[in-house]
Amino acid sequence: MSVPATDTRTTSLRARIDEIDDAILDLWRERAAISREVGRARLADGGTRLVLSREREILARFSAALGEDGAQLALLLLRAGRGPL
Ligand SMILES: O=C(O)C(=O)C[C@]1(C(=O)O)C=C[C@@H](O)C=C1
Which domain of life is it from (predicted)? Predict the structure, then answer.
């Protein structure tokens, strides 16, 4: 029996979704590691743990691109790097 064309298409689209998710996870981990490094360097220089002006910029950028979902995503990204407030 032949496989319906929609099943084949779904399988291939899901494979692409998995690739995209892997890329997102890699980028998530890379961003968090870089954020931690920036934070450690700032603390070692006697600076603050947070830079709220920078966090506001990031929140605004994600909100402008994705609305409320973007704001939530930005908050999760920031927390992954600098830890909870
Ligand atoms: O850009 C910085 O100075 C960072 O420390 C990185 C970062 C971020 O994850 O984007 C993390 C904490 C700061 O409050 C602001 C931004």
Answer: Bacteria
